[in-house]
Amino acid sequence: MLAKEVIYFAGSDFNPSSHEDEEGGQVCIPNISPKERKKRVQFAIRYFLFTLVVLGALLAFDVNPLWRLPLFFMFSAATTSYIQALDKT
């Protein structure tokens, strides 16, 4: 039954982002400039590399695994910045 639903949606002109109240031909305009997107990508790369270095140090010195938990927030900050640059928001 799931396969029929997938085929139904794949074969139809289903577009979840289209709304009847929108005008045809509208274009999504970027919310940030190319300079700002470049800054966000550079931040994401630097922060990701820094987090990897910290993770490597924690693993090398055999620190308690609970100390790795804050790295989640560091990884998520880098990921969020990168996604914002890709989506131009």
Task: Provide a concise account of the structure shown.
The chain has helices at residues 2-11, 34-60, 71-87. The protein is mainly alpha-helical. It has a domain at 30-89.
Task: Supply database-style keywords.
89 residues, mainly alpha, 3 helices, 61% helix, elongated, disordered N terminus
What does this molecule look like?
- With 89 residues, the protein is an all-alpha fold.
- The chain has a domain of 60 residues.
- The protein is 61% helix and 0% strand.
- Helix 2 packs antiparallel against helix 3.
- The radius of gyration is 21 Å and the shape is elongated.
- It starts with a helix and ends with a helix.
Judged by helices, strands and strand pairing, the structural class is mainly alpha
Question: What number is the mean pLDDT?
Answer: 81
* Beta content: under 5%
Q: Fraction of residues in helices? A: 55-70%
Q: What sort of overall outline do the alpha carbons produce when their principal axes are compared?
A: elongated
Report the sheet with the most strands, covering strand number, pairing sense and barrel closure. Answer: none
Question: How many strands?
Answer: 0
Tally of DSSP helical segments: 3
List the helices and strands and how they pair.
Layout (H helix, E strand, L loop, with lengths): L1 H10 L22 H27 L10 H17 L2
